[in-house]
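User: Structure please.
Assistant: Input sequence and predicted structure:
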Amino acid sequence: MITKTWAWTSRSRLPDPDVVEKLRAAGCVFAAEEAELIVAAATSSAHLDELLRRRVAGEPLETILGWAEFCGLRVVVTPGVFVPRARTELLVRRAIAAQPGVALDLCCGSGAVAAVLQRELPTVDAHSADIDPIAVECARRNLDPNRVYCADLFDGIPADLRGRVDLITMSPPYVPTARIVTMPVEAREHEPLRALDGGVDGLEIARQALADAAGWITPKGRFLFETSRGQSEAAVAAAVAAGWSATVVTDDELEATTIECRLPW
């Protein structure tokens, strides 16, 4: 329980040692940095107590602050929405390199991927979709709300996009079901399960998307999706079984793996 009474002024922006210690005791690796952000976000001593209570309880820092920094862009993130990960920067870099005219981001969460894509490629016609209405509402705060759809993969995407998409991106749930219990508390208790759980081997959602994506993409288009390095061989096999040619792209620094798929003709 937080019992400290905070002396608050508009200049109270340096992390109080007690704040740092409470965060460190809760397991926050970057306690001093988090304390600085939390103190800066608080508007009163009572508000600071509330923000600190939420973080000590395991809520992600990003949903407490209301934003996440992703590829140098501040993206709105609301409670109950998957927090964009740094490793997804690899997916974004490959998407930018593809120079699409029309792009579709599935399992979009906060909409971070499309937001960065639009920043880097201002002329791209970027569309996003997620099955979770909470995520859709959040993504609409970061993107053109008319181009964010509540959809179960392609079920719910406007029909006039069929056959016109140059690039499909997806950061699907890819944690095997049995491993959910081993995830950090801030993920397994504060992010939606369906944004994490990828089925028995973690590739269930990817397989579903691979089966249907060819009908939406242009002949020379690409389908990029994120997975783990340990799943990459099985992910490529799934892509090939669905009729795609596929390659693995990795970034050791980001600990990131992206599968790049093209139609074989």
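Residues 45-56 form the longest helix (12 residues).
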